[in-house]
Design a protein that fits this description.
3 helices, single chain, three-stranded antiparallel β-sheet, alpha/beta, about 150 residues, five-stranded mixed β-sheet, Nucleoside Triphosphate Pyrophosphohydrolase, 8 strands
Length: about 150
Amino acid sequence: MKRVDVVSAFIQDEKGNILLVKNVKEDSFYWGLPGGAVEKGETLEEAVIREVKEETGFHIAVSGLHSIREMFFEKKGHHALIITFFAEIIGGHINISDPDNEIGEVRWVDYQTAKELMPSLFERLRIDSDHKKTLAFYDFEGKSIT
């Protein structure tokens, strides 16, 4: 299996809204946190800063580690390590400049809407309603046939 490192950012505004992106894949889509694959020669922090800028237009500063998750995508032959960071916006405005054209929309949503848009990811990320920082955790999420 090919090892793939993926980063994402959990970003909230002053009201507790969560920044989400609509990922478009062929004729389907799913909502998630901004992020993507780490490129050769990049640190994890450099990668998440670049990915958030490309997908949302925002400049961010990493403020902590949210989680490390691991999963096997057997159909693709990938062994993914997914590192999610807490981050804060330090500049910019919504402007999608994703070179892969995989982001259809960027949206700030409240806790309940985030839970409705991405229920399984919401649970896997252990997001709670009181907007406190989750203690960093590791989880092996198993094998996926996709």
